[in-house]
Predict the structure.
Amino acid sequence: MTTTLLHQSPADVATPLLVVFVTDTASPAPGIKDSPAAPTLLTTNAAIQTAATPWLTSGDFKATLGETFLLPAPTGLKAQRLLLIGLGKADKLTPHELRKAAGVAIRFARPRTLRTLALTLPEHPLLPPGPCIRAIAEGAILADFDIDFYRADRKDLSIESLTVLTPTPITDALQTAFNEGVIVAESQNFARTLINEPGNILTPTELGKRTAAMAAEFNLACEVHSIEKILELKMGAFASVTQGSPQPPALIVLRYEPPTPPPANAPVIGLVGKGITFDTGGISIKPAADMDKMKYDMAGAASMIASMRAIAQLKPNVRVLCVICSCENMPDGHAFKPGDVVTAMSGKTIEIMNTDAEGRLVLADGLHYAQTLGATHLINAATLTGAIGTALGQINAGLFSNNDETTGKFFSAAWNAGEKFWQMPCTDDYRDQIKSQIADILNSTGSRYGGATTAAMFLKEFVGDTPWIHLDIAAVTWLDDAKPWQSKGPSGVAIRTITEWIRSYAS
Ligand code: BES
Ligand code: ZN
Ligand code: ZN
C-alpha cells in the first residue's frame, strides 16, 4: 500500500472512494431530555456537508463506532462514492477510535475491489491532528492484512493507494507522525505474517533466516547461533527444551546502535522473546483439541523482532539489543522429562515438574544472556500461560514487573499506542509456588491457582535487580473472530507499545 498525506479539498479529489468520519451526537444535550441531535460530520467541507446532511437527519445512520453508510455518485464531489464511517460518541473520542475506523474503511474497500481510497482527516477539538494521522496510517495498514496465504483461491484484495486529506498545510511534524504510523504498522504486520506461519514452515532455522533478512534490510547487526553456542553459553534450561526435537534450535541476537553514540552509562534496552515454533507440551503432552494453535507460541519472539524492525527505522537515540530463544517443544526419546534437573545459564538449578512449562525455561536463559550482553532494562513477551486468559480474558495482556518506574513509562506508552495491558501481582509473597525440595526452583507447581503469576515469579528469578517487564500475551495473540477493522488470526499485540516504551529511554 502506498500512503500519501495531501493538503487538498476532499471535494476536488477524484477517487473511487472518499471516506469521511462522523460522530454520534445522539446523547441528549445537557438539560434536554431526548434532544434529537443528529450525527455530526467531522469536516467543514461544504460540498460533503451538502451531500451527506440529508442522510444524517434521516435516522438511517447512527454513526456508532465502525458503522458505515455509502452514498454512491454524490453530487458536488469528484469522488465516485462517499463513505460515512461512525466514530461513536462525540464526548468519548480519542485517536484510538480513528485507528479502528480507518481500518473499517480498508475492510470496506477490499471485498469491493476498490484499490484506491482517500480519507478525510477529521476536524474535532478532541482529535489532535498528529496522533490522528498516525492512528489512521496504523489502522489502515493493519486492516490490510489477511491470513489466507496458503489458499489456492486467495484473492489479492490489498489496497494499492491510500491518501489522507488534511484541512491544514502539512507540517514536518504531521508528515513525521504519518511516517511513524506506517513504520510501526508495517512492522506489526511483519510479526503477524511470522505468527501466522505453520510450524512445519516456520522452524527455528527459518525464523533465524527471516530475522537475518530483515536485519540486513534495515541495517541491524544480527547473529543466529546454533546448539553449539547454546551449550557453550551453558544455557541448560533452553537446551533442555530443544532436546526432544529433530529441528535445530536458534539463538538469535539483534543489535541496534543509534546514529550518535549515547554516553557509556546510558540505558541499554534488552528485548527477550519466547520463540517456541511449536509447543506440543513435550512429554507432558497437550490434549489434541486446539493444539494446532501452538504454532503461534513464537508470537513473543515475533513481537520483539518486529519491534527491532520498527526501531531500526525510527532511529531513537538509545541502544537496543534483542535475544530470541527459538526451538520446538517435542516429545521424542531424547526429550526432557518431568523430574529432570537442569542448570540454567545463571547457575540456578531447576526441577522440571511439567515439560509444557517450557517458555519460562527458554526465557530464563534469554533474560540472563541479555544482561551479560549489557542490557540495563529488560522486557520480554511470551505466550506463556493459559492462566492469563482465565484471569484477564482476551482483552488485556498481563503485565508483570519488578519496577514501578519502568511500568509507569510502559503504561503511558500503551495509552499512546492504543493497546491494553493489566498489571498482575509479582511480589515475593508468591515465591513459595516455585520452591523445590531438590533444586533451587521448580518450573511449575501442581496448583492451578495464580498460574500466570507463578510463571512470572519463575522469570523474576533470572532478572536480579534489573528493571524488567514481562508481558504474558497468550490470550490476546490470536483473534478467533474477525473484527470490522481487523482480520481474524494473529494480532501482533505489544509491538506499538514496546516501540514507544523504548523511545521513552532515548537521550
Ligand atoms: N504455550 C503455552 C501457553 C499457551 C496456552 C499459549 C494457550 C497460548 C494459548 C505454554 O507453554 C504452556 O503450555 N503453559 C502451561 C503451563 C503449565 C504447564 C504450568 C499452561 O498454561 O497450561
Ligand atoms: Zn507449553
Ligand atoms: Zn509454550
Remarks:
- The chain is about 30% helix and 20% strand.
- Residues 276, 279, 297, 358-359 surround zinc ion (ligand 3) (CB under 6 Å).
- The longest strand covers residues 268-279.
- Residues 397 and 421 are 5 Å apart (CA to CA).
